[in-house]
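REQUEST
  id: r-88c1
  op: predict_structure
  target: Type II toxin-antitoxin system VapB family antitoxin
  payload:
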Amino acid sequence: MTSSPSLNCRDVDVYLYDNHTLEARSRTNIGIDDALLDAAMTATGLATKKAIVDRALRSLVERHRRKNAIADLAGIGWEGDLGAIRRDRPDDKL
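RESPONSE
  id: r-88c1
  status: 200
  body:
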């Protein structure tokens, strides 16, 4: 039996490719406030640090996409006075 050559950290590609989801992923080390991480895990029910960070990043990106979409819609669409329309409508009460 032949032994495989040992790898040192310079031989390992830190960029991974998830074959199941076809998404590129990278590994990184970050410092996170432990109390904040524990609070996030309790609040969400997520069990891993990875899941918490993934959820937080996705939530942040989605929030900014919505904000930008709303800003892009500014000035488009209906420009009326709903209050005036309601005042002018006949009273439906009997």
